[in-house]
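Notes to self after the call with IL:
- keep both proteins in one doc
- input above output, always
- annotate only the second one for now

Protein 1:
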Amino acid sequence: MLNIGICDDDIYFLDYIESRIVEILKQYNIHANTYKFVDGIELLRAYDSMDKPFDIVFLDINMPKKDGMEIAELIRKRDDEFLLVFITSMEDKVYKVFKYNTFRFIRKTYLDIELEEVLNNAMEKLEDEKHIFKTTCGDIALYISDILYFEFIDRVVQIKTFNSKYRTTIRRFKDVEDVFIPKGFIPIHRSCLVNGRYIRSIGNLDITLDNGEKLPVSRYRLEEVKKSFINMARRG
């Protein structure tokens, strides 16, 4: 369940953007709690009374009392992890908002065009889970997007990222497959599981990753790899 905060001093616009958010998320079978605030002070009070209340905050730039940028600065001191989306009719101020670790901004006059794309991007970002792995060098935390592939070598699972390789203490490859195949990883042979988003191309019996690395593919899995690759490409 997502928690979404929306802050705008225009009550009619506040109701409209809430209805559009709920409508868009419903199409994707995503349920959300929405919380509306007519000024930034109310939003700050929510942060003071709740433990990490929001996954996404939609925040108007031009508001009375404290404007959206002042509120963003104060909220970021409380929570640096939520996705911040500025909504504005003042396009000349857009360049100023990115220092607040801004995820996206939406122009009010283009709300119906831009809101769905922003929500899709946000869902992708929020799905990028962080996992803790025990390795021979200690515990490491990796996002799914950090991982290129898992390999089972010398009876342990090894993790390849863009910059490093880690030898874990996991001794059953099935433990990795059970967790990561539903998250977009593709088994290319019985001891290698590849992050599907990083497959650049598929050859006769190999694949090329975005970093240029080639990996062999089992002839028995080739058709399934191609099918998974095409399905992921269609989803974008």
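Protein 2 (the one to annotate):
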Amino acid sequence: MATLPVARTVKALRAEVSRWRASDERVALVPTMGALHPGHISLVKAAQRKAKRVVVSIFVNPAQFAPTEDFSKYPRTFANDRAMLAVAQADLIFAPTVEEMYPEGFATTISLDGPAKAGLEDAFRPTHFAGVATVVGKLFTQCAPDFALFGEKDYQQLKVVTRMARDLDLPVKVIGAPTVRETDGVAMSSRNRYLSETERAAAAAIPRVMKETAEQIRGGASLSTALKRGRAALEKAGFSIDYLEARNADTLAQPKRGGGEKLRLLFAGKIGTTRLIDNIAV
């Protein structure tokens, strides 16, 4: 198997993309922070259905880590990631250094509102989405893809990036791909490796309770009643809950009285020292 090429600089990335463009080939981008798992590979496969060429970025972005979060401890598994992407037949890895992405004197961030200020992840990680939007905005201008694929597991992030691309008239179509799950329903995540055997078993309560809560809402239960029951069930399973909320599926705003809008159920909470997130459609 041929070695999958790696671009370490924006210049090298643009040179490769320019060669593809000269052959009128469409390009898709899959942004990641590495520590890849089958959920990421599903994004690559979805990207291949949209475009002839697929770039996967691997960059642990310091701008989206809060001071209380340990950037240095984020898992870095580049050799394994490269092997997985070679098997998946991606076309190029873009793996810049921090200095390449944020050179000395870098002083620009993207200011956000709308789905980035929904009182969900932003309430617990207030600087997170500015860091995400800034690095994704840079990746979009560096790679200039036709499509960009993001997993629905990070649902608020998907909505933030979609809104940013639309508001800034960036010529890229942002596509959300379904969450890939383990056999017991737990969403695949690089964080799952930190769970003990007992914690991993308890994590199965997340998709089960969310499904039950969504069914109650669809069955006519009030949001407050269904969510209260769901929170109690997750606490009983051992979780310290940051939020379990039903929101407008597009804007992430609080649902309007009277119903009729599409809703998304979103969860975040800790078990032990590991924080997990998930979401499902209602």
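Annotation: The chain has a mean pLDDT of 96. The longest helix spans residues 128-143.
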